[in-house]
């Protein structure tokens, strides 16, 4: 188990995670959750003890948003293993999720593991039927994703990965037309480049993550289902949009240190458009459900 200090660029405040949670839950694809529930019901072995029957591993769990979304939508008693490199967020997740129950009022058991996902995952995935994560993969490297897909294949589990950013960022005016001028183009390209910055173990996947996940699991014999899960931020989401744009401004200052004035002018203009309700903001994400073929599963459980 790793105790190394997490990179500051891969740490998140609980305040930010709480602010984004309603938009995340609204954006997620309900059908993929339903399909994951059906898969678990078909494959969980009722003769095994709970921990070996319905273990669900939540990678990069933060303060538990993914668990709060999924657990009440899945049937049957569940054993959740929460994984994060931030001990404070893990403690908050344990506290905030202790009274959850399943869709059919069965108990939810919690276990937490403080480690880096760059470390070996074999032990972490032990006994897992479903591995899940939300808003995580842009932070990881291609090697992390490859190692995760290998470990999932070996354990024969299904995976449900929600809210991986796909690079789409658009402001729309009241008629629904996309506003995509030279400054928008320039800033959004710089933001994408910033998302690829090293978070401690090499270049991060940024908006390439959905494609990499899809290819990695398909290549290992998984059946793939995907859906778009964009944030649509309008007047009811102004605090989130404002916080998001403040983060973008900071990232753009780092990425374009010679162009602070241009960054600030673009930021001020688009923020003003949002606050005056002249535009809405779309931020693209993808959800992915990958289920192992029967052959993969029988190989894994043999
Ligand atoms: C954007 S937050 C998402 C948290 C949560 N899944 C949610 O949807 O609110 C990413 C989470 O991944 C964790 N994280 C990032 N990189 C990690 C790594 N290499 N190992 C373990 N945890 C990591 C962070 O501490 C953070 O809790």
TrEMBL record:
Pfam families associated with the record: Methyltransf_25
Membrane-spanning parts: none
Source domain of life: Bacteria
Presence of keyword Signal: no
Ranges of residues in domain Methyltransferase: 56-153
GO molecular function: methyltransferase activity
Gene3D superfamilies cross-referenced by the UniProt entry: Vaccinia Virus protein VP39
GO biological process: methylation
Keywords annotated in UniProt: Methyltransferase, Transferase
UniProt protein name: Class I SAM-dependent methyltransferase
Organism of provenance: Salinicola corii
Phylogenetic classification of the source organism: Bacteria, Pseudomonadati, Pseudomonadota, Gammaproteobacteria, Oceanospirillales
């Amino acid at each position: 188990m790793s105790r190394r200090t997490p990179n500051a660029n891969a740490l998140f405040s609980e305040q930010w995670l709480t602010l984004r949670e309603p938009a995340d839950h609204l954006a997620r694809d309900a059908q993929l959750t339903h399909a994951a529930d059906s898969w678990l019901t078909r494959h969980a072995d009722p003769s095994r003890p709970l921990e070996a029957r319905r273990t669900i591993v939540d990678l990069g769990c933060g303060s538990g948003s993914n668990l709060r979304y999924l657990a009440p939508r899945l049937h049957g008693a569940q054993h959740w293993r929460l994984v994060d490199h931030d001990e404070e967020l893990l403690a908050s997740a344990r506290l905030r999720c202790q009274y959850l129950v399943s869709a059919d009022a069965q108990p939810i058991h919690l276990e937490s593991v403080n480690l880096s996902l760059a470390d070996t995952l074999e032990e972490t995935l032990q006994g897992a039927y479903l591995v899940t994560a939300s808003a995580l993969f842009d932070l990881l490297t291609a090697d992390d994703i490859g190692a995760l897909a290998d470990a999932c294949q070996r354990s024969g589990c299904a995976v449900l990965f929600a809210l991986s950013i796909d690079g789409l960022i658009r402001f729309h005016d009241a008629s629904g037309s996309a506003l995509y001028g030279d400054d928008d183009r320039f800033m959004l390209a710089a933001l994408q480049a910033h998302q690829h910055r090293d978070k401690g173990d090499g270049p991060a996947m940024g908006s390439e993550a959905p494609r990499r996940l899809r290819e990695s699991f398909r290549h290992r014999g998984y059946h793939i289902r995907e859906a778009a899960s964009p944030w649509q931020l309008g007047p009811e989401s102004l605090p989130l949009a404002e916080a998001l744009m403040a983060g973008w401004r900071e990232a753009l200052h780092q990425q374009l240190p010679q162009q602070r004035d241009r960054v600030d002018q673009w930021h001020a203009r688009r923020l003003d458009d949002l606050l005056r309700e002249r535009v809405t903001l779309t931020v693209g994400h993808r959800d992915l459900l990958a289920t192992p073929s029967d052959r993969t599963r029988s190989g894994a459980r043999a």
